[in-house]
Amino acid sequence: MSNITTVGIVIAAGVAGVIFLSGGGLERNLRACLEDQSNRISSQDHVYMTEALGEEIWRSYPDGTATRFVKYRVRGSTTVKTATCRW
Q1: DSSP track, 43-81
Q2: Can you give the C-alpha Rg of the chain in angstroms?
Q3: How far is CA 48 from the centre of its chain?
Q4: Are 87 and 70 in contact (CB under 8 A)?
Q5: Distance between CA 72 and CA 7 in Å, rounded?
Q6: How many other C-beta atoms are found inside a 10 Å radius of the C-beta of residue 62?
């Protein structure tokens, strides 16, 4: 194998490893956001959330966080819910 091929394989494996280890990032962050919101209001969506559907970044900040509009579903419902979160 040439050096370029070897370097390409190593880089691809590294990227795949990072994606694998950080898998569920949207779901994890959304669940934490919903949990924080439930501490302020009486919603328990973080407990029953079954699917994180997506996010749209509304505004980014210099510290690397962003305000996001997120969509999700909860158990027993086909209704798509939305929330505004920052992480």
Answers
A1: --HHHHEEEEEEEEEEEE-TTS-EEEEEEEEETT--PPE
A2: 18
A3: 16
A4: no
A5: 39
A6: 5
Q: Half-sphere exposure of 44 toward its Cβ, with a 13 Å CA cutoff?
A: 3
DSSP lists the bridge partners of residue 67 as 59, 86
Residue 23 neighbours by CB under 8 Å, 6+ apart = none
Token readout for 7 is 């370097």
pLDDT in tens, 2-27: 667 664 565 555 544 434 434 469 99
Segment 35-48, tens digit of pLDDT: 887 777 767 676 66
